[in-house]
Fold these 4 entries.
Entry 1:
Amino acid sequence: MIGRLSSVVFDCPDPQALAGFYAEVLGVPVTADEGDWVDIGDVRTGRISFQRAPDHVPPDWPDPGRPQQVHLDIRVDEDVDEAERRLLELGAVRLAAPEGRFRVYADPAGHPFCLEWE
């Protein structure tokens, strides 16, 4: 092993807003806010960071001209329809019809992510 993962970092136009979205979705707190950089979670829960990128161009999944670059798969242990309702209230946008055990959404900055369930 050379090292261990410290954080997954998303470029976005508004780090506070996107951190707040994922903090609510994942049930982890905002742990640092330095203006242009915001962290949620910690070593125990896993950390996701959000970095201001004023010229950020969001992915346009599934358009290969603006690919998703990276995405999160988020496991849902509850009713997936209720989870979707809550996501949409938080500002997510559904991108595709369900496929198997996955539903694809965009976060408020346009990054795709999936809900998965058993």
Entry 2:
Amino acid sequence: MKELTVLVFVLVLGASQLFAINSKPEKDSNPQLRDQIAVLLEKPQIKLLEQEQQLRAKIEFTINTEGEIVVLNVDSKRQVIESYIKSRLNYKKIKVKASDIKNRVYQISLKIEKPIGA
């Protein structure tokens, strides 16, 4: 009987884990939202190292009830990129219909390229 109880407990715990993990970020975000984020992130003052031709970062964010961007995660090789993104995006208001975009996790990519001839 004890083994049956443990087995049922393991099955319930495993099933609950499957439902908890099911929050995948949306990769194809609203075009208006993407355009506003591009404006907030334009003209970075980040110097690339000599061996770097470009820097990439993956940004995960959500929109709170106030219509502000909340950065959840920045995946980048350099800390300066993470700091730049968070300073430019965190808690900045956006002008998109909030009912369409709230309660979702979005994911966008950022690429900073070295200017030609630099």
Entry 3:
Amino acid sequence: MSTKVENGTVGHVTATRAARRAITALCAAHGGPVMFVQSGGCCDGSDPMCFPGGEFALGAGDMLVGVVNGCTFHMDADLYEALGRPIFVLDVEPGTPGGFSLAAGDGLRFVTRVKAPREQVS
């Protein structure tokens, strides 16, 4: 049986070079870090929500999964557990994001890909 993850203590997210360039440009455009929030639709290639840092209110069940280029990446802790504690790769692809999420720029949107589940802690 796995141990319940606590906010910010485990988890992992990384980013492709293209996503890191987009994050750097967004941080410059908004005068500070942005934040990513992965919704329930986190199958491979889904869009994370992206906002200027601190603009999105996190709930008690949300956890910090990781930090990329100074920008935080959050998701629901129960969902993270249910997915087997995956390693996420933040990437970009052509298109515009849905909802109120920030575009990555240059006609791109951010997407989250699942790299692999993390080893379970017993």
Entry 4:
Amino acid sequence: MSSSAPQDPRPADGHRLWSVDEHLADVLGAVRPLEPIELQLLDAQGCVLVEDVTVPVALPPFDNSSMDGYAVRTADVQGASEEFPAVLTVVGDVAAGSGELPTVGPGEAARIMTGAPLPPGAEAVVPVEWTDGGTGGGAAAGMTPASAAPEQAGGEVRVHRAAEARAHVRARGSDVQAGDLALAAGTVLGPPQIALLAAIGRGTVRVRPRPRVVVLSTGSELVQPGEPLTAGTIYDSNSFALAAAARDAGAIAYRVGAVADDADTLRSTIEDQLIRADLLVTTGGVSVGAYDVVKEALSSVGSVGSSAAPGPGDGDADVEVDATRIDFRKLAMQPGKPQGFGTIGPDHTPLLALPGNPVSSYVSFELFVRPAIRTLMGLPESEVRRPSVRAVLKADKALGSPAGRRQFLRGKYDAESGTVSPVGGSGSHLIAALAHADSLMVVPEDVTSVEPGTELEVVLLG
């Protein structure tokens, strides 16, 4: 890597240029995990447990069969073969869910189904394929349905193979024992965890709910996909990208159609959305143009910094409880230099205002919004940010980077070779390249050129 001379991060006008790490720390410092609630199992999918869950009863709760076949005593089938089968008297059927069970005595067997409790006296299960199925013929391929041949629950069965004790029997508590830890606090509930909770009889669990994230894109030039374009218009992709990214991060996402470049309309839209938002994300309108509506709308209410709402005795009596507290700032990064962050509304809902260029918007989401969502979920610090690795740059030529800016370039990571290759150019509007990237290559602020073969930090997006 080639390094440039140290740069003064303060522009001539005295406005502070924030580093990526400072901005992220400011965001996470103002975000707190959501309060726990009790939810039904399916509603809790994707949520984080806030307490340990222990097993109230053993699983399985009783010895049961792992095969369709016959429950037998091992002494009765010892030495059995096709030439000299063991002939046993069938004393009844044992189906899954059976209550009263037949007792299997010497020379007896009970027809048993998968999952059914092992009846008293039985020591093993022989699969139906090891028997004649009670037909008096050769090896059975399966059982005739009980409704079609109820007589096969009685009579005789010929067993062609011996069975050891406990063969094809699932022992009580072989999965988990009563008192075992089923799931630890901090576990994210996916389908397997939901299944385990149901299996041990839990109908509800105490979790931190998935954050509700409202995404608004701004710009009079934006048209919704599926509608015709007119002169000077483009399709709104940002709101779709960020809503999808919010879902991917674990949130419940609400996408609001593009808001025109009108400050009053935007303020009204945001006010309407606060009722269903744990986090608001806007895209576009945060730079220095005459039509940067987010900055106009939210700055005009009173930009008083991005700290959390003052508590009793803080001496900040001039701040209204419903005042907007958004700080618009410039970051030493590319893409994504203009950013906004603060709180809004009576509940001081966090709001992150991202730039409007598609790549800038998405990179900003990954660096700042995703960690905020994961923090709201109550995930441990190790799971808040995307994982990163070190990889060797594989490229035809050196990559340039502006002095004093941390650059995030789209890349394709090859885990097998430990290399990363650039995808597309550095332009913040090049959304097609973003669709083919699976990582972000990070070029530090003090580096202006990265030669092929150089090791880089790589943020994994997959």
